[in-house]
Specification:
With about 260 residues, this protein is an alpha+beta fold. The chain has helices at about 1-20, 30-35, 40-50, 70-75, 80-100, 140-150, 150-160, 175-190, 230-250, 255-260; strands spanning about 25, 55, 65, 100-110, 110-120, 135, 190-195, 200-210, 215-225. A 6-stranded antiparallel sheet has the order 6-5-4-9-8-7. A 3-stranded antiparallel sheet has the order 1-3-2. The relative contact order is 0.12.
Length: about 260
């Protein structure tokens, strides 16, 4: 009898996980109950158990249930662009609140750097970013972060296809110079765009890692140069690295996440 009940619970639990996956990794309790055909009370019990075992996450009682990093670690599956964008929202919001500046998350797909989530600053002078905007890989802080930890062959392939257009007086225009810059970024753990892409705009970015330890995104703070002096950039480094680490842990990276499982 116990074996039958255990088998039934396992089957129902897997149906719940599959349902959430079908909805892009996030679904409400009512949707889950309706799609699985389970009574609300049964669905709720299974959902709480799956959270306890580390397979689901929920930010608050009224929030949707989400697939947890543990599942991605077990399957080796990568986060989708939409999932990374959704997961990053509270983190870029926190970084913007802590710094008072605009923040964003960018990813690299097929050699193209694009912004997938952003939060503009609230001040009268601000840099407005757009989700979906493509960024050059060689002269932006996020681009350089995403390039710095690429396998050598992949990096060489991307560099071989770059047209090194001089955007400003500070733009890197030679592959050798770019590679030296990427080596420094690996050592320092962050990247800076000192008006290399757009005159008057400066950025600082840090890597975000997934459950495999791979750099899957770049977290960035951006603003006008009059607010981003060398001293200010140094002050921004602490909160940037802190929030990037928190987001990485949320994505399953590091011993902190492993211990929680």
């Amino acid at each position: 009898m116990k074996s039958g009940l255990s088998h039934q619970s396992l089957e129902r639990g897997l149906r719940v996980i599959e349902t959430i996956a079908d909805f892009g990794g996030s679904a409400s309790a009512s949707v889950i109950a309706r799609k699985t055909g389970l009574p609300r009370s049964t669905a709720h019990h299974l959902l709480r158990s799956l959270i306890t075992f580390g397979y689901l996450l929920q930010d608050g009682e009224a929030q949707p249930y989400k697939l947890a990093p543990r599942l991605f670690k077990l399957t080796g599956r990568a986060w989708t662009q939409a999932q990374l964008a959704e997961i990053s929202v509270p983190f870029i919001d926190e970084l913007s609140r802590r710094t008072g500046e605009g923040t964003s998350l960018a990813i690299l797909r097929e050699g193209v750097v694009s912004v997938v989530a952003k939060r503009d600053s609230e001040g009268p002078v601000r840099v407005v970013q757009k989700v979906g905007t493509v960024r050059p890989i060689y002269c932006t802080a996020v681009g350089k972060i995403l390039a710095a930890w690429l396998p050598e062959r992949e990096l060489d392939d991307i560099i071989g296809r770059i047209v090194f257009e001089r955007m400003t007086a500070n733009t890197i225009t030679a592959p050798s110079v770019l590679k030296r810059e990427l080596a420094r970024i690996q050592t320092n753990g962050f990247a800076v765009d000192k008006e290399e892409h757009i005159e008057g705009i400066r950025c600082i970015a840090a890597p975000v890692r997934d459950h495999s330890g791979k750099v899957c995104a770049a977290l960035c703070i951006v603003g006008p140069k009059n607010r981003f002096s060398p001293r200010r950039l140094k002050e921004l480094r602490g909160p940037l690295l802190d929030v990037a680490e928190k987001l990485s842990v949320q994505l399953g990276c590091g011993a902190v996440q492993d211990a929680a499982m």
